[in-house]
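Table S5 (text form). Sequence records supplied for joint modeling of the two-component complex.
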Amino acid sequence: MTLRVAPKIWLLSTIAVGSCWSCAAFATLGEPESALKGESQLSAASIKLSDRGTYRVHEIDLPSGTVVREYAALDGNVFAVTWHGPFVPNLKQMLGRYFDEFSAGAKAARFDHHHVQVNQSDLVVQSSGHMRAVSGRAYLPQAIPGGVSVGELE
Amino acid sequence: MTFLRDPRFATLALLCVGVAACGGGSTIGGSGSSSTSTGTTTPSGSNVASVAVTSGPSNDSVNTLFTSVTVCVPGTSSCQTIDNIQIDTGSYGLRLLSGALTLTLPVSKTATGSALVECTEFVDGYSWGPLAQVDLTIAGETASSVAVQLIGDARYPVVPSDCSSAAPMSEDTVATFGANGILGIGPFAQDCGDFCAESIPEPAIYYACSTSSECTTTTVATASQVQNPVILFAKDNNGTIISLPSVATQGASGVTGSLIFGIDTESNNQSGTQTVVPIATTGADAGFLGTTFMGQSLSMSFIDSGSNALYFNDSNVTACTNANFKSFYCPGTTESLSATFELSGGMTASENFSVTDAETLSASFTAFPGLAGTNPQSMSFDWGLPFFYGRRVATAIQGYSTSAGTGPYIAF
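The corresponding structure-token record, covering 566 residues in total, follows.
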């Protein structure tokens, strides 16, 4: 069946400020961070950039109130993303080509409705919370810069 | 006694890694399986619903609390009583799996005549389906025209890609959802609240569907969102109390207790002397409460009947090596630990708890007070159902008052 939903969302939801976030060329796990710079579609969200020596952090305050952080190594590739706030962000967008692996890993286990953890050698996704208050993170263990602790990914 | 190493468990394990021990339903009543019932007395009254910790309809649940509800087509005597409804203080509103529903309920409409359909974003999965109104009865409590969600309704089979971007898998059947429905009685009145009345999150929660497959995102007034049904009761509507017996360290099956509606509204739901833990309503930690553990203040903590273990991070507790128990703790012998709740006015309250080796839990049991695992969020301590054993836990809804204060708070 043809899914006719998505295109109409962008055309018709005039108050969906947050929706444009997902149509933006947003930096994604395993992808270059550069797409984020100067992204005009993100005007509704505020973006902060901080340099932590061996990596850079982009912090994006989404219109929904959820805060997303993206961790980019000096080579410019995003090795981790984190989120917390009232709404789950678009994980398919944030995890990019790793979303299907996350999905398969989650299906192979069985969780309660307030947790999910996928721990694989190339991908870790951890998410928890309850309705209206959620948080989580995803990272590529093999891409974390040397000397950086997973605990820094908040 | 059947242990998890039993070959029977091996076949269950794939289904149950995340919930760890997997109560194996076929041998309930094995040696030592009777529940203890110390620590609480059984309340009675029209505001008391019976609850039980069972293996659920999928026969694989542990530390999961169920009850039954009766729903009717509004204004009629066309009704259905549905069992295996999970009790969840970590969500808001009643959601019914269409696979468990024999009633045909009319779908709620928007002002322009489209169907109002929801994408519920649980952490482990998304559940898609229309809203409907029901007349609801739980124990002696009734409410008319309650907005609920019908998950997996065949009238709206096409899940928008936006919705399926929010979580790793679809949970639209009884088997994938793990219950015939979920009764969200947490400390908020609606599943989204003011934000969805004014704006649309991305991915969106609410959609207006003009046909079975053409849907656009929409705002929804709070009164038309899925409602925590407790606020719609004529009385006993300011919150709930879950009362469960204590459970032996090795676990038990057949654990039953009570869901009491109202706080300080009847003789059986008085606050008395208790610890009140406030829930933040603003800022980055809105919806969470504070727990201090190992000297660290964990600002994204919560107390939640819908979590099936205590989830926290302590590198001193041995993690399980068995792949079936990945992310759970296996300390060998039971360990006693302590944390503190952060109360108002800078006060704290100490809380002792135990961690039992997950691999020693019997597959014939459904309630394990010592089941604990790592928390995906380093700033969080999730006090799941084990916290509820042997006590009364009150959940006061935001904006509603009790003798102990105004919600949202959790008290015990």
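Note: Chain A touches chain B through 65 residues (CB under 8 Å).
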